[in-house]
Amino acid sequence: MGLPEQQSAAVKSGSGTSVKVSIQSIPIPQRPGRGQILVKINWSGLCGSDKSILYDEWDKFGFTMKDAANGIAGHEGAGEVVAVGNDAEHLWKVGDRAGIKWVASACSTPRTLTVDRGTNGRDELQCPSQLNSGFSTPGTFQEYALTDAYYATHLPDGVSDEEAGPIMCGGVTAYVACKRSTVRPGQWIVIPGAGGGLGHLAVQYAKAMGMRVIAIDGGTDKEALCKKLGAEVFIDYVEETNVPAKVIETTKYGAHGVVVTAGSRASYESAPRMLRPGGTMVAVGLPTDPTVVAGAPPILLALKRLNVVGSVTGTLKDVEECLDFTARGLVKPILTKGTLEDVEKFCGLMKEGKLLGRAVLKVSH
User: Fold this and answer.
1) Residue 259 DSSP one-character state
2) 336 pairs with which residues across the strands?
3) pTM of structure
């Protein structure tokens, strides 16, 4: 049975405050190119980065969606392979379950990135020739998406498509940030923005890795969520006038690590003051204001010998490890479900800080 000729996609039009995301009918690629597969997208996560790309929130950084993406965002796709291109038959077959990530392709050609190279943990994320789903190539807010067969991820049994989608970016970003913090089992880690799409996953990975979690967010709903997911301590930034002092009081000397998942000025300014000597702050949340800086006054950095590092998504191997946590029942994304028609609504909820957990969209029906 052949593929349909048309599909539905959520397509961006306009720019800045005039942006609209509408459902349009577009052609389905009938044949994958060399080294490609065509994936029927069952579910796609809606990442905070999708919101920023769709609404040009990073235009002051020169970071705006490329014309080659055809206005189609999305980089957390999970679904079924429906066609396999030449040079990819040894990697995929029709019916396999596949995940599509932020990095859709790395290196100058797909054939130069072997499975062994990716899973050996080299940092292909810094490849200058990479293509990014929903940014420089059409993303997963469409029913059928072409992607690089060498960089797509095989989805394991025990992880549903709606769970796997958000892990392709949100999950691996949170997991790698926890690793970058260098916090060891039994040590304290602080997670500002702990009830959000990234934060609630970071709470779970940190807990599963043996860390003691202090969650920071606002409101009773976020408190209930964070404690349910394994946070040992919750600090409500709305009620608590001095959050760093509360962290010091709880941990005696300060936390060993802080993973800043919230992209706010307050989170970045307060994070270094929560750390003990030798502690590490991990910058993850991406502010839209270019004047927000991750760091601390040099005297504080020097006297406490603090570390400030950045973290972005993860390698093929990192994604495999993330999926394994979910397959073993240790990490479960908390999902707010919708459809492609809900892209604008969910982006609005994100802006207001009212979206619990991770948004995920049913794409194909």
Assistant:
1) E
2) 359
3) 0.93
